[in-house]
């Protein structure tokens, strides 16, 4: 009896979300902006030289210039992520929000910069823990991520593509704007 009730409730929820699903580019972009604004941390993934992907938890800085998204990650100039990104600049950064039943996965080209002015511009006071001499020390690098593709699911905000949340809504950057494309 409990299983039948659970299954009926899940089916009703899935059907309601399917009816409310909104895959329009404007709604998707608004949702991605909101999710990234709430995300304090994400997983930065780069290609390791041993054939495995390397993932680490980072505190990114997210900037929007109209529709164009730029993500910055501060790190040690001698870190593995800097070496791996310099070797292969195709990276991924992933964010999640359990309460919303949401995730955003950003596929980006990354560039490494040790420019002190750039490190100063994006400096976060908490980074003093890792860089006691501050951004002027030369020990820091900034990773500049330029997104090319975004995948998103957000049940709270009605982005739940079929088959029901088994594929993400995919957005690609082209012609100066984000476009919803087939997964």
Terminal Cα span: 38 Å
**Please, what is the average pLDDT?**
91
Strand content: 35-45%
As residue ranges, the low-confidence spans are none
- In total, the number of domains comes to 1
Largest sheet: 9 strands, antiparallel
Q: What is the N-to-C succession of helices and strands?
A: HHEEEEHEEHEEE
* CATH superfamily heading: Electron Transport, Fmn-binding Protein, Chain A
> How many beta-strand elements?
9
How much helical structure, as a percent, in the residues?
25-40%
Structural class: alpha+beta
Q: Return the CATH class.
A: Mainly Beta
Q: Give the number of helices.
A: 4
Task: Could you tell me the CATH topology label.
Answer: Pnp Oxidase, Chain A
CATH architecture grouping: Roll
Provide the gyration radius in Å.
Answer: 19 Å
Q: What general outline do the C-alpha atoms trace?
A: elongated
